[in-house]
Write a structure and sequence with these properties.
about 350 residues, alpha+beta, 4-stranded antiparallel β-sheet, 11 helices, 12 strands, about 45% helix, globular
Amino acid sequence: MNMQAIEQILDLARWAPSGDNMQTWRFEIAAPDHLVVHAYDTRDHCVYDLDGHPSQIAFGTLLETIAIAASGHGLRADIARRPAGRETHPVFDVRLVADAAVAPSPLIGAIRERTVQRRPMKTTPLTAEHKRQLEAVVAPHYTLGWLESRDQKWKAAKLMYNNARLRLTMPEAFETHRSIIDWENRIESPDKVPANALGVDAMTLHLMKWAMVSWRRMKSVNTLMGTWAPRLQMDLAPGMACAGHFVLRAAGKPASIDDYVAAGRALQRFWLTMTTLGLYMQPEMTPLIFSKYARENTRFTQEARLENAARALQRQTEALIFTGAGHPVYMGRLGYGPRPAARSVRKPVAELMKPV
């Protein structure tokens, strides 16, 4: 195998989704048929990743993208995590093997097109055939739960609206939000979330930019004006303006890095399949994250009152999505168009290579 193939695979792999477009991995080409992925989680500075599990799901989306991209060259990607090393910095060996049985994946064309839509979508219900295809692509180890009725969408929207209040009044979350919004590249950001993709109107966006200079400013705005405007625009209204919400459930409760990586691989197949069907998605992970913190007594803030709020949100989350068989590992809302005008793009491959 020549070097051109692995370079083309990496050029597609870099489009895998990661939390807030952080791209928490670096690549090393050990040989023309051997790629090493050096991953790292964000638990040391991101309140949404204190156990590393959201990052591990992102690692899975990357590895699945590599496997899909490799299929376009008739290659099978054999992936193994090195047992040694720190939990926060897992290393994955990817061996690319020529295999006549490997056909190009129909999802290859969706890799660059897949994106997040944070603004309202069409309320057109999902077709039965599209649901069947989405359920098939995550089977047999994962299933999908659907929240599609008006009542279910309203409950999901209220859950996100209530979680947003927790996010917006937490100093620890403020530091994360301030670091990932790109105010300079408002349409396409190579390493952050472009400001115009946030899903708020121009006036609210202007106020957010002013307030996010410091926690003191943000706290003053929250006290004087409340948090209802961004929550309404980013959570409540979009929560109704969509086809519905979904919950990706694992057959068993994840217990290891490999379990969360596997969930990420299923998620990427699901997301890319949505893209081929003209569907868009917005992740809705905060209910799962903060309810898990509350359930496991993980301290995530210095504000005691917010820990009490998290316990209330845990009850609301479990009543809505912890029903039926399986363990929820991911949640989001989805719908048919329109395509977002602003989106996160990616760093070039050269900037994602591990320094020698």
